[in-house]
Design brief:
The complex is a heterodimer of chains A (about 575) and B (about 160). By secondary structure, chain A is α/β, with parallel strands linked by helices. Chain A is built from 20 helices and 22 strands. Chain A has a six-stranded parallel sheet with strand order 3-2-4-5-7-6, sandwiched between helices. In chain A, strands 11-10-9-12-13-14 form a six-stranded parallel sheet, sandwiched between helices. Chain B is about 30% helix and about 40% strand. Chain B is built from four helices and nine strands. In chain B, the strands form two sheets. In chain B, strands 5, 6, 7, 8 and 9 form a five-stranded antiparallel sheet that branches. Chain B has a four-stranded antiparallel sheet with strand order 2-3-1-4, with helices on one face. The longest helix of chain B has 13 residues. The relative contact order of chain B is 0.21. Classes of the chains: A alpha/beta (about 575), B alpha+beta (about 160). The structure holds thiamine diphosphate and magnesium ion.
């Protein structure tokens, strides 16, 4: 039997769990663990420049790979710095294990140096948390943490470990358990077959169906089955901001994103539908607009692994709790059975006229059928930058983003054909997410193009990570849509506050990003003219081994459209430009 | 409507704070709460009462179930059940009031568990509305202190909440 200290057990358990990277930052209460890491040296540790970035990097890694991201931080400020990233992961159901140091057990509760109640502070933003009381609990607790983080509806799990628990001189038997028991945790493994049958009968009877899917399809690895089901039926599909890539964007059945900045054809189709199949989506307020006006004629089938997501805001007519992949598979089989029994299903005539209607909306308003932005201005339009990025990367890149107008433009104009390529903070909307997340993705996929679409506001929230990118070689491409404003804030101020730009401007304070990149040892390219855009974009991706920051001076006054009208609007009520609305 | 939700909870540190935190985080009300260990030392039983329409109660039970420390729960108000709350009331009791309070206590099947020259301490158990009725029946100004345990409950018949 092997004898290990608590600190060694932590490291060994992470190795046994198959962890590829630890993103972290050392400090007093985790020094024993860091020493054990140094000695074992099997799992690479990425030293970030701020603990928030550790959580976002682990999060980006998790979103791109599907495996839990791992974070190690010290007590007190290390732990509190990690909070924003934990909340970000929680809101988007991202699997993550965060190990935080804690002051020595006997000091807990006494306001010791760098003490903070991490379990308490993180409680509302974790799936679960543990405070380790005895070193012998370490292997099983870590095993449980990874299982909880990744199974069911995924989420972050915190393990708080007092320093004395990791003491190098106290050794205990180490065995990493193959299994563990959690009597109080039994996520559904299958959807109810009776409900699935009822749901598919309803779906096949639809005249104006829509399939509306969210991040759950990506998290639950249901993309292929979703695509197969939608194509079997020839039904239109729309994805939420979190769900982009679950259905191939370049397929003709795809209506684009829905919701606040969704496509007209997607929002209209939802509004006028008679049956909605919602899969792994949660009827978020950024999708539904005014709940009481939401899709007045639709019957709703709602599939989710989390029963608490069903009928939370919009009541489901047919709720189905289960893992999306298994449920979609059962649905597909059911649809084939029903169609074999009744060849007239679904009603192709109705479907044809539904598609005709949708295609009219698409031809008139679709963002991909014709440019809806001003192409004559001579300015670089932010939309054009994303189109250029899409072209330069053949639509194959991993694209992370920050939060703001640039995020919405990226979501609208980069056509994601595959899941796990679009990586953004949808639920919490965390500025500062993009660069560290890109770093985490690049570590996981060093041979793939990884771009971070950002704004001059957001990038400055975690810009220190440029240094981490140097240290570990993460040649991501940063596409800065530089509009010189907190653009999304400005857009709201334009629309609702008569253009009073209260603290959404920086005066003359923005740094020279090109020089800043040079200072960090990276490449900065400024693009001020439209005619230089394509070459600069290509250049950025040609420099395979360099981090390139493309500082693109875009039209400072562009708004993101469509934009749903609130308050009191329905899904189909949208502004289409500064002067038009539906 | 008022619901009595009874929960079997892992007897772990922090488990209670997760339940209470859930209520404040999601804007649900807890009217009463009580919690104590069960015959199985790894489990606590927590009983809470809350107000809400069916949709809200459904959300509450779903979110409670989502907590890893919650092993099982039941909404007792969905079926026949027995509800009990324990109350102790200290009242000013002098002169003619002494007999009056004693009579009232007897009517409500309470007991006087402590006596002083000018005070009585009365213990009463029963459903919450019975305790309310008792308080209504005695002179407000005589009441010095009221302690209530919060509601406990159990289903009638064969039904049990256990592992
Ligand atoms: C941490 C954080 N603080 C504040 C906000 C509110 N917010 C949303 S978008 C935005 C402006 C972002 O500006 P920029 O990064 O330049 O992007 P742009 O909208 O100009 O493209 C702000 C302040 C936020 N989402 N996150
Ligand atoms: Mg900006």
């Amino acid at each position: 039997m092997e004898m290990l200290s608590g600190g060694e057990m932590v490291v060994r358990a992470l190795e046994d769990e198959g962890v590829e990277f630890i993103f972290g930052y050392p400090g007093g209460s985790v020094l024993h663990i860091y020493d054990a890491l140094f000695k074992s040296n099997k799992v690479p540790h990425i030293l970030v420049r701020h603990e928030q970035a550790a959580t976002h990097a682990a999060d980006g890694y998790a979103r791109a790979t599907g495996k839990p991201g791992v974070v190690l931080v010290t007590s007190g400020p290390g732990a509190t710095n990690a909070i924003t990233g934990i909340a970000t992961a929680y809101m988007d159901s991202i699997p993550m294990v965060v190990i935080s140091g804690q002051v020595q057990s006997h000091l807990i509760g006494g306001d010791a140096f760098q003490e903070t109640d991490m379990v308490g502070i993180s409680r509302p933003i974790v799936k679960h948390s543990y405070l380790i009381k005895d070193p012998r609990e370490i292997p099983e607790t870590i095993k449980k943490a990874f299982y909880l983080a990744a199974s069911g509806r995924p989420g972050p799990v915190v393990i708080d470990i007092p320093k004395d628990i990791t003491n190098p001189t106290d050794k205990y038997e180490y065995v990493y358990p193959d299994t563990m028991k959690l009597r109080s945790y039994t996520p559904a493994t299958r959807g109810h077959s009776g409900q699935i049958k009822k749901a598919m009968q309803l779906l096949l009877s639809a005249q104006r169906p829509v399939i509306y899917t969210g991040g759950g399809v990506i998290l639950g690895n249901g993309s292929e089955l979703l695509t197969e089901l939608a194509q079997e039926l020839n039904y239109p599909v729309t994805n939420t901001l979190m769900g982009l890539g679950a259905y191939p964007a370049t397929d003709k059945q795809f209506l684009g994103m829905l919701g606040m900045h969704g496509f007209v054809e997607a929002n209209n189709a939802m509004h006028h539908s008679d049956v909605i199949l919602a899969v792994g989506a949660r009827f978020d307020d950024r999708v539904t607009n005014t709940i009481s006006k939401f899709c007045p004629t639709a019957k709703i089938i709602h599939v989710d692994i989390d029963p608490a997501s069903i009928s939370k805001t919009v009541t489901a007519d047919i709720p189905i709790v289960g893992p999306v992949d298994v449920v979609l598979k059962d649905m597909l089989a059911q649809v084939r059975d029903l169609r074999a029994a009744d060849k007239s299903l679904p009603d192709t005539e109705a479907l044809d006229s539904w598609w005709k209607q949708i295609n009219e909306w698409r031809d008139e308003h679709g963002l991909w059928t014709a440019p809806r932005y001003d192409t004559e201005s001579g300015l670089i339009k932010p939309q054009q930058v994303i189109e250029s990025l899409y072209r330069a990367t053949n639509g194959e890149a991993y694209v992370t983003s920050d939060v703001g107008q640039h995020q919405m433009f990226a979501a609208q104009f980069y056509k994601f054909d595959k899941p796990r390529r679009w990586i953004n903070s949808g639920g919490l909307g965390t500025m500062g997410f993009g660069l560290p997340a890109a770093m985490g993705v690049k570590m996981a996929f060093p041979d793939s193009d990884v771009a971070c679409v950002t704004g001059e506001g957001s990038i400055q929230m975690n810009i220190q990570e440029l240094s981490t990118c140097s240290q570990y070689g993460a040649p991501v491409k940063i596409i800065n849509l530089n509009n010189g404003y907190l653009g999304m804030v400005k857009q709201w101020q334009d629309m609702q506050y008569a253009g009073r730009y209260s603290s959404s401007v920086y005066e003359e304070s923005l740094p020279d990003f090109v020089k800043l990149m040079e200072a960090y040892g990276h490449v900065g390219i400024r693009v001020e003219k439209l005619e230089d855009l394509e070459d600069a974009m290509d250049e950025a991706f040609k420099l395979k081994d360099r981090l390139v920051f493309l500082d693109v001076y875009v039209d400072r006054h562009e708004h993101v459209y469509p934009m749903q009208i609130a308050p009191n609007g329905s899904m189909r009520d949208m502004y289409l430009s500064k002067t038009e609305r539906t | 409507m008022r619901h009595i939700i009874s929960v079997l909870l892992e007897n772990e540190p922090g488990a209670l704070s997760r339940v209470v935190g859930l209520f404040s985080q999601r804007g649900y009300n807890i009217e009463t709460l009580n919690v104590a260990p069960t015959e199985d030392s790894t489990l606590s039983r927590l009983t809470l009462t809350t107000l809400g329409d069916d949709q809200k109660i459904e959300q509450i039970t779903k979110h409670l179930n989502r907590l890893i420390d919650v092993v099982k729960l039941v909404d007792l108000t969905e079926g026949a059940h027995i509800e009990r709350e324990l109350m102790m009331v200290k009242v000013r009791a002098t002169g003619a009031q002494r007999a009056e309070i004693k009579r009232c206590t007897d009517i409500f099947r309470g007991q006087i568990v402590d006596v002083g020259p000018t005070v009585y301490t009365i213990q009463i158990a029963g459903p919450s509305d019975k305790l309310d009725a008792f308080l209504d029946s005695i002179d407000d100004t005589a009441i010095m202190e009221v302690v209530r345990s919060g509601v406990s409950g159990i289903a009638r018949g064969e039904k049990v909440l256990s592992l």
